[in-house]
Specification:
The structure holds three protein chains of three kinds.
Chain A: H1 2-22, H2 26-46, H3 50-75, H4 89-112, E1 118-119, H5 129-138, H6 141-162
Helix pairs in contact in A: 1-2, 2-3
Chain B: H1 2-9, E1 12-13, H2 14-34, H3 38-63, H4 67-97
Chain C: H1 6-21, H2 27-51, E1 60-70, E2 73-81, H3 83-106, H4 113-132, H5 136-154, H6 161-192, H7 197-203, H8 209-226, H9 235-238, H10 244-253, H11 258-265, H12 267-271, H13 274-295, H14 301-321, H15 325-352, H16 370-384, H17 390-405, H18 407-432, H19 447-466, H20 469-472, H21 486-509, H22 513-521, H23 523-529, H24 534-582, H25 589-618
Antiparallel strand pairs in C: 1-2
Classes of the chains: A mainly alpha, B mainly alpha, C mainly alpha.
């Protein structure tokens, strides 16, 4: 069953990801991205990261992507135009580099992780809310508190940047 | 049939998750380099972050250590903060330049 | 411990006081400091002489501190006094005091009064170092120092371009000689591992003749520069641009004799290098004749005496070259007397004529300046070798030794003596007899100037008896300079008297003769009058190529082209590279991102390959 689930949801993820890259209109890209996140959440579940999977759906797909869509609608971003001066370095240098990277990592993963084990649903139970919570509040307490400060900073920054001038 | 069932009953090798993560990441970078709208570029960044999250959780499963999940948690927090601030910046840039074309935001040069 | 260091210390103190504070002192104080310091030096010399004991048997050596120590090579600041040094000390400090005193009168109306006396004291300091030095290095310090002071004093009238140029010429030509001297010192160090006189001279007889010849010839090069012999004499006539006391002190009595002193001091080296000795004699004789011929034609009174100095120095070198060292030193001493007197007298004459130096505008001064005239008569008699004057003894000693060496040298020397008498008396007749052809009213000089003239006149007449140098320096040099053949003496005296008579005829009795001779000789006269165009020859052959070569090759090619080009080129290249790198910063975000991706991929691949390499090794 795991294999089937994996194939299905990874296929959905891949197709949605390709869609993100290829679509013309930002709204379409955003919705495809939501699809990617959803399928990734299922994969997290299979990998035993229940808490992360839920957090992904609630925070990432539910809040961040909604924010994206709000901004797209606010800016009335239209379909991408073909004009403007395109940079020649990006396709010329970037794509070969990426292909090289991809080839290399795939080869590395296939060769180096051959005996790394197999994933089964339920094979790892440490990623539950209890498990994550215990680790978060004992071993990683300081980073946890720091991230709360980080979020505070982000809020203040976003408000300052995006407000209208009071006149 | 029993082989198919047996195949279906066996698990997924960890390396496949990692390969998926690599492919998603590559797609994210490709989109970043090729797209012209600022918001789409931003979304590709989110795609890259998600790919990395996947590889973290896969490693967490492989080593049976919860630290991978913890790190994913932090990545998500940071991604959320970054998305907020980044979009605010895009709003400001749009207000000043009236364009969402990334090639036209190029005065920081020479 | 005779405290020899006091001898140069007094003038040095005078230099410091006058140099640093002289601007604020009144003239009387400057005079006092300057003259008193030299007199104090002279007094100390007297004290050392009287209490020093028998210097022939026990020369005085004083070692003050070690200057350089390098392995086996050790040079200290040593002073040494033997009979030769003592003679030189007397000459330098004695005549120096007289001239300092004279200068207080002569320079009374000049600008930069304190500067003049400061430099003069500095010169005394260096000259005394030169003479007192116990090794070649101290001698060289003094050698260079007097060259420096010569430059400073010749170019004393800093507002006159000709004066400063002459100062440059003096210094530069001297430096060429100094180069030879330095090479000689290097050879000495290489061969004898020391520069100390006693050690070098005891080791010299054992060294190979070729080495000694090389050393001696290089020392000679230095001497020709300092003592104005062929080929480096050209600076001395130009040095007459300096004030007359300077010409008297430096370019007659003391500095130019340093070369003779140095050769005499190095007698041991020269005696074992016969070729070098022969060269010295020939150069000396040639210079004597050469300069005498030029002196026949000059009209500037100081130039006549300048060429006379070059000629007389040639005599001294002739004496040294034929082995008559003490005769050469004797002539050095007597020459100091009468040449200083001639120059100081010329200064007095110039002073009387209100700064005029051309003899064609003088004449008939006997009416106005009898005192100066009388002293000049004494000097002219001495230089002509009039019997029983100082010059008579020393010159005949040299000529006698020359005859013993090679008769033809004697004959050339005798003819030159005749020419010497002729031009000196020509100067006298032209200046003191006939009608005054200048402007204004000539007047006699004050006693501050006449006093030294009188003293020197007495010395010129009687100095031969008082300072019988060969007797003093007896046993110092191998060659016994004994009784001369009186016939030779009679012949040379005859030539001298003939010169006097001829000049009397041509310039007093029948004054049309000089013009007729000049017109008759035509081109030859022009050649001699223009000093055989030697300066012009040097200019085209040496100076111009050097200057032009430096300008084109060293300045334009090497300095501007290569060095500036390299330095500026580095800058330009950096700018060029920067210009190329600037293109990376196009402002386009996507290109930036591409570069980041490329870099990251490269890093990752490298890390991965190395990790896999380790993994492969591990497996």
């Amino acid at each position: 069953m795991d294999l089937a689930f994996f194939f299905v949801f990874s296929a959905i993820a891949l197709i949605c990801a390709i869609n993100v890259v290829l679509q013309r209109h930002p709204i379409s890209s955003a919705l495809s991205l939501v699809g990617v996140m959803g399928s990734l959440a299922v994969l997290y579940l299979q990998l035993g990261g229940e808490f992360i999977a839920m957090a992904q759906i609630i925070v990432y797909a539910g809040a961040v992507m909604v924010l994206f869509i709000f901004v797209i609608m606010l800016l009335n971003a239209g379909a991408e135009s073909r004009s403007g001066k395109a940079s020649w370095t990006a396709p010329l240098l970037g794509i070969p580099a990426l292909l090289a990277f991809l080839g290399f990592t795939v080869y590395y993963f296939l060769r180096g992780f051959n005996n790394a084990g197999v994933v089964k649903f339920g094979g790892y139970t440490g990623g539950s809310a209890a498990g994550v919570g215990i680790s978060l509040f004992t071993d990683y307490l300081l980073p946890f508190e720091v991230t709360s400060v980080l979020i505070l900073i982000a809020i203040v920054g976003a408000i300052v940047l995006a407000r209208k001038e009071m006149d | 049939m029993p082989e198919a069932m047996q195949v279906l009953q066996s698990g997924v090798p960890v390396s496949w998750y990692l390969i998926l993560s690599a492919v998603l990441f590559t797609l994210g970078v490709a989109g970043f380099l090729l797209r012209r709208s600022v918001i789409t570029v931003f979304m590709c960044i989110e795609l890259m972050l998600n790919a990395v999250n996947l590889s973290f959780v896969a490693f967490s499963n492989q080593h049976k250590d919860v630290s991978g999940n913890i790190f994913t948690f932090f990545v998500m927090v940071v991604a959320a903060a970054e998305a907020a601030v980044g979009l605010a910046i895009i709003l400001t840039v749009f207000k000043n330049r009236q364009t969402l074309n990334i090639d036209e935001i190029n005065t920081l040069k020479n | 411990m005779q405290n020899l260091w006091l001898i140069p210390a007094f003038p040095f103190l005078g230099f410091l006081l006058n140099g640093l504070f002289g601007r604020k002192f009144p003239k009387a104080v400057i005079n006092l400091i300057a003259v008193a310091s030299v007199l104090a030096s002279f007094g100390w010399v007297l004290k050392v002489w009287s209490s020093g004991g028998d210097l022939a048997a026990n020369p005085i050596h004083e070692h003050y501190f070690t200057w350089m120590q390098s392995g086996q090579f050790n040079v200290g600041w040593d002073f040494a006094v033997d009979k030769l040094t003592m003679i030189m000390l007397f000459v330098v400090t004695g005549i120096g005091s007289l001239i300092h005193f004279y200068a207080t009168g002569y320079m009374a109306h000049e600008e930069g009064y304190y500067r003049f006396f400061a430099y003069l004291n500095l010169f005394m300091f260096f000259m005394l170092n030169l003479v007192l030095g116990g090794n070649y290095l101290i001698l060289f310090v003094g050698w260079e120092g007097v060259g420096l002071c010569s430059y400073l004093l010749v170019g004393f009238y800093i507002v006159k371009k000709s004066a400063t140029t002459a100062g440059n010429k003096a210094f530069i030509v001297n430096r060429i000689g100094d180069f030879g001297f330095s090479l000689a010192m290097f050879l000495i160090v290489v061969n004898f591992k020391t520069l100390d006189f006693t050690q070098v001279f005891s080791a010299a007889p054992g060294a190979p003749t070729s080495t000694l010849t090389a050393i001696a010839l290089l020392l000679l090069v230095g001497a020709t520069g300092k003592s104005a012999q062929i080929p480096l004499y050209v600076w001395l006539p130009d040095a007459m641009e300096g004030p007359t006391p300077v010409s008297a002190l430096i370019h007659a009595a003391t500095m130019v004799t340093a070369g003779v002193y140095m050769c005499t001091r190095s007698a041991v080296i020269f005696l074992h290098a016969p070729i070098a000795m022969e060269t010295v004699a020939v150069i000396g004789l040639a210079t004597a004749v050469f300069a005498a011929t030029i002196g026949l034609t000059q009209y500037d009174i100081k130039k006549v005496y300048a060429y006379s100095t070059v000629s007389q120095l040639g005599y001294m070198f002739l004496g040294v070259g034929v082995g008559a060292f003490s005769a050469g030193i004797w002539h050095l001493v007597t020459h100091a007397f009468f040449k200083a007197l001639l120059f100081l007298g010329a200064g007095s004459v110039i002073h009387a004529c209100h700064g005029e130096q051309d003899m064609r505008h003088m004449g008939g001064l006997w009416k106005y300046a009898k005192g100066t005239g009388a002293t000049l008569i004494c000097a002219s008699l001495a230089i002509s070798g009039f019997p029983f004057t100082a010059g008579y003894f020393s010159k005949d000693a040299i000529l006698g030794a020359a005859y013993a060496h090679e008769p033809w040298m004697y004959w050339v020397g005798v003819v030159t003596a005749g020419m010497t008498a002729f031009y000196v008396w020509r100067a006298f007749w032209m200046t003191f007899t006939g009608e005054y052809k200048g402007h204004g009213h000539p007047h006699e000089s004050p006693w501050s100037m006449l006093g030294p003239l009188v003293v020197l006149a007495i010395l010129s007449l009687g100095g031969g008896f008082f300072f019988n140098v060969p007797k003093i320096l007896d046993n110092m040099f191998p060659i016994k300079e004994g009784a001369e053949d009186m016939t030779l003496t009679y012949i040379s005296v005859a030539f001298g008297l003939g010169g006097i008579a001829l000049s009397y005829y041509m310039y007093v009795v029948n004054t049309k003769v000089p013009e007729r001779i000049t017109a008759g000789l035509g081109g030859l006269y022009t050649l001699v009058y223009n000093k055989y165009f030697v300066d012009e020859i040097y200019d085209t052959a040496v100076v111009r190529p050097l200057v032009d070569g430096s300008t084109t090759v060293l300045w334009h090619v090497a300095d501007q082209g290569i060095i500036d080009g390299a330095v500026n080129g580095v800058g330009t290249e950096a700018r060029g590279i920067g210009g190329i790198l600037k293109l990376l910063q196009g402002g386009n975000i996507r290109s930036y991102a591409t570069w980041v991706v490329v870099g990251a991929v490269v890093l990752l691949v490298v890390m991965g390959v190395t990790a896999m390499g380790f993994a492969a090794v591990g497996q």
